[in-house]
Amino acid sequence: MQVNVIRKSTLFSPDPSRIIPRFLNTTEKRSIEILTAVLSMSEVEVNKAISQLLRGFSTRHRNIARIFENYYSRLTPIFELLDIDESTLSISRKALIGSYFTKEFSIESAAFYNPSIIEDPDQSELRPDEKRVIISFRATGEGHVSSVVFRSGVLDRDNELQMEPVGKMLAEAEVTNKTIYNKKDFIEKLNQMQNGENGLSAASLLGNLADSFSYEELIRCLGESEEPPSVVLDMLVSQMKWLASSYYELDFSIDSAISERVIFPNSPAEQKGIEDARFVKFTDDDGIVSYYATCTANDGAAIMPKLLCTSNFYHFNVLPMTGVIAQSKGMALFPRKINGKYAMLCRIDEVNRFISYSENISEWKVAKLIQRPRYPWELLQIGNAGSPIETTEGWLVITNAIGPMKKCVISASLFELDNPEIEIGRLSEPLILPNESEREGYVPNVVFSCGSIIHNEDLVIPYAMSDHSSTYATVNLKELLAEIKGNGTVERSISNLFKPGESVDNQDEMKVA
Hints:
It is built from 10 helices and 31 strands. The longest helix is centred in the first third of the chain and has 15 residues.
């Protein structure tokens, strides 16, 4: 029996008018030339130029003058090099200098996709049958650089989504590095990055640091190192700074709407983007609620799984995940601990589904195979379309699955609540396939989700259409679970059919050596 899927008419499309100011990097030589030219201008010329500039851009950005001031402050090393007394410069001249090192970036001009839906922390002023939600998206702009953005709205009794107005004055967060690093974990992550190729010991280089240390202490330790200069040393120091900068905190202005907050790449590990955030409302054993998102940092050459942590969507902690399991995309955190441990779904071999447990939410060292492809439409790969959803019948896992012609569909499986290593059943047919209006885009024949939610006895599934735009659909939860359970004993014969409990090339469990 085919489960009834109700596609909604709501469409989330790329909007090139959604822009943020970014710092314009130039060479030292070009920076000096620009500064020299602006410093040679008369005060009348400066005032005229900045007046015209503010007239054209003050309605496009929140406090554009402060942005110019911030970017101007990054040029202090150049002023020191030129031996210029900055105190002699007028506010207008400083702002004008900053404007030459500012550019606009359209965050979602190329694509608006891979959505995840989560319950808003604020459920006030609603009817009992309504739910306020936050939907995260992967927004992609110039150079295929991706960021995380948000929309908000209210699901009514019929699961029609009433969207809140989308703000235009986009806001980047204030970025700070207040992290205290664990020495043992830091060295372990470095060793994973080096993959045994670096002959210089990270442990010896950091020997003078305490078991816990700050960014400033790390930089001071590296500056005091007595190791002789070498290419290997330069590489290791660069890797340490690269890793350390991957931990940071974000603070958004309290006067910004959720749709105006942009989590844009902020570290070298993210320079090509932050991809596919899978948000989950996590309830700890003590009842404290936090919101986590697993995502992927991409620097153009390598990826780094990261964790976003927040309680209010104004302040975020951002940190890399460590351990041999944290080496691939598609990790999805369970919404609560299982038998006293954090639990994570992952796909460490790029084909099958694994589960990992840990006492530390950012450290993942052991994984066990729990599901392999069974049907032709999922034969190439099965992945996690968001965090598992707890139901009375078991853990509902929505799946991104890839089959012939690299066609990506959405399906579902069910696992036992007390032991999510045991599969109860899965759909024998895809739940959502790309229809004729959804199959054309940047990547054809793809529907893809990063997180669903239950509301009024329906499963609400936001999904992307061919890596371009997004929409959502609803499915009756009772009907879906009945279909999955009814298919629990069905077996299809294809190559390498997975059977529960079967050993898979002695790789059903992976550990750190």
